[in-house]
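Hey,

Quick one before I head out. I ran the complex with glutamic acid overnight. Inputs first:
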Amino acid sequence: MAPYVTRFAPSPTGYLHLGHAFAALYAADLAERSGGRFLVRIEDTDRTRARGEFEAAIFEDMAWLGLTWEEPVRRQSAHFDDYARALETLRGFGCAYPCFCTRKEIEAEFAASVNAPHGPDGPIYPGTCRGLSDLEKTGRIERGDQHAWRLDVAKAVTLLGAPLSFEELGGGPAGETGAIAVNADLFGDFVLARKDAPASYHLSVVVDDALQGVTLVTRGNDLFAAAHVHRLLQALLKLPVPLYSHHRLILDASGKRLAKRDQATTLRHLRADGWTPARVREVLGLTSR
Ligand code: GLU
């Protein structure tokens, strides 16, 4: 086994629960067993929801689990320049366009179309702003109209020319393993930078994994589909390509994925209830170290 550089990338918008514990231990175990490195990244681009108190709790809970990680931890809010540069590169290629649509307008378009195609995150953006003239785009930006930036996926695919694939080690939602052919259209013209945040999840994750030197991206298989467009961004931005291992999700008694509102499975609650880190591992079906 090659020494893997893995990472755990929580958002500080709530307390860690058993699902996070599984994700963190899964990444740390793969790093440790391969003689590699385990990194942490705080995904706090959403400044309205991120809280310092949750970030402190993340570190406390991780230490309680017995994890150690490299310092300094990368905090996305400290690196907005990196994402702006990546966006600039994509704009330079002519494959990013400003989107002035409001959420309401997009929803109205979905409602009006009978067969709106759906992606993993819901209906696919119909491309309303893709065809705006350069004059209109610059005019509206100069006027101060609020806008997001989207990838023109068709242009990006043409620019790249060759089909892409990524290597899945762990099995996606349907047990996919091996070389996975990229479906660049999966999310349509997805958002690169939001009106209220300078980088989307897709853009920031791709930039960060490259800058942090992550060689094996591990995360829940609810994010398997995202790897398709992450691979597309890596090719456009000429970034190194990590391996992927998407893992199973931890479900509650009714078979639903654990959510931040499920207080009963937060690590601090379980700890107060007398749980030990060894019990957490056992319940999660992870072998002890
Ligand atoms: N921040 C994401 C989450 O909490 C994880 C992103 C990733 O691992 O790529 O689900």
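The chain has two domains: 1-78+251-289, 80-242.

Talk tomorrow,
K.
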